[in-house]
Design goal:
This protein is 54% helix and 2% strand. It has a two-stranded parallel sheet with strand order 1-2. It is globular, with a radius of gyration of 17 Å. It contains ten helices and two strands; from the N terminus they run H-H-H-H-H-H-H-E-H-H-E-H. Helix 2 (29-42) packs across helix 3 (47-60) and helix 8 (141-152) crosses helix 9 (160-169). The mean pLDDT is 93.
Length: 199
């Protein structure tokens, strides 16, 4: 039986997420935008709570299409406050809409995917070699920098801990334990040709 990171031992949804998504380098703009919104929604909660609500979030937030979410109105906020499928926190809901607008502003200036990767990890994957859960950081100088620049770009709910979780989830950082079968598998995944020389 394959050995996994300790946090993915029980819940089937968590196991699937760990085995197929977490730590995989992501260069898809849509997925990265979704990640920013969901990690912000997770602030103060467990990730499994958000994972169980992810499909409801996708439905509530127009499939995480930033062009559509940016046009949400006060009426949409009130609608979402009544949606039991998501975290009904007004500040988080309003921040998701604001973050969509910030994403569009960023997209008008540059490629958000390249910007996020370059700001966070200078376009390369950081591979850590953790032996046990206690050795995994909750923030780093890289996540500090990403948080600072996202806030400067108008994003909210993007503190350094949230940013580090985002970096782990989207494969900017490989934080699978060395004993986990995904540590090696994720490390062997190819990067896009334009980033191969930065690895």
């Amino acid at each position: 039986m394959s050995k996994r990171c300790a946090w993915a031992d029980n819940d089937p949804l968590y196991i699937h997420y760990h085995d197929t998504e977490w730590g995989v380098p992501c260069f898809d703009a849509h997925t990265l935008f979704e990640g920013i919104v969901l990690e912000g929604a997770q602030a103060g909660l467990s990730w499994i709570t958000i994972l169980r609500k992810r499909e409801a979030y996708r439905k509530a937030f127009a499939g995480f299409d930033p062009d559509k979410v940016a046009r949400f109105t006060a009426e949409d906020v009130e609608r979402l406050m009544l949606d039991a499928g998501i975290v009904r926190n007004r500040a988080k809901i309003e921040s998701a809409i604001g973050n969509a607008k910030a994403w569009l502003d960023l997209r008008d200036r540059t490629d958000p995917v390249a910007w996020l990767w370059d700001i966070a990890v200078e376009g390369r994957v950081i591979t850590n070699r953790h032996k046990e859960r206690g050795s995994v950081a909750v923030s780093t100088p890289e996540s500090d920098r990403l948080s600072r620049e996202l806030k400067r770009a108008g994003f909210r709910f993007v503190g350094t801990t949230t940013c580090y979780a985002f970096m782990q989830a989207t494969g900017m950082v490989n934080d699978h334990f060395e004993s986990c079968f995904r540590h090696h598998e994720v490390g062997q995944l190819p990067l896009p040709p334009s980033r191969t020389d930065k690895k």
